[in-house]
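Deliverable D4.2, example record:
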Amino acid sequence: MSKQKKTTSNSGHPTKRRNNQIRTCVSVVCSFLLAMFLTVLLGAVAMRFGFFNREMTLNKINESDYYTNVYQELMENLKVIADSKEIPETVVTTVFTEKRVYINGKQFIENSLNNNDTVVERDAVEKELETALRAYYKTKNVQITNAVQSDMDATIQAMTSEYTRMVRFQFVDYIRKYKAAYDSVMKWLLPILAVLSVLLIAVLIKLHRYPHRGVRYIGIGLVSAGLINLILPLVALIQRWYTDLGIQPDYYAEFLADYFKWSLYSFVYTGVISIVLSIGLFIWMRVLKNQIK
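Output generated by the structure prediction step:
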């Protein structure tokens, strides 16, 4: 009789061991998938608060004295055009003021970041410039013949085109396009990943007899996602890869370096927060385990 019980008992061990192995394999796979899903979710949060953060972008533009630098470069370029036409600098500075560059440049950037129309208004600039040129020619007793009018129109076109080119901050157009493409994907991907993550968490909890074992695998998935989001941006910040972009002019490169730096910090913050949360999960796991004892 005792031999029969022993045989029955021994026959149950392989089955129990196999069930434990299956449970462990399923838990590892679920934890891995959870880590991948959470990595994307955390990355999406970092992108929203970093690269696609409207307020941060505007702040970095203002901190870089972007508008002042654009105005100075614009004046240098317009002076070349004016000198070639023997037009005094006072005519140019009367129309193209730093205030105008600031207002139109800021309007273009904000409209672009808000997905609004980003056309730079040229009509008012062209009319004011023509008025200024006519006044100048009048002081020089120059009659507005067809040839003079044609030359004046070419000058107005050249200066206005240069003004429009300088005022348009092309980088924010790129941000808008990338953000639109990003949103079109994430608006359906993020809810799916969130639901799948919740399902995986539920599976890990239900899969184990004791909840703390499931919490352990959840914590591993969360800390893995945090490390993935943390390590590469942290290395980039330490190595300062973003400072060697080879972009001109210098003020543009300085803005981009600052922009990328603070965007990378958003990944670091989300990574650190997820690691802190995972530490909280491990502490909770220990509490649950102690309650069983």
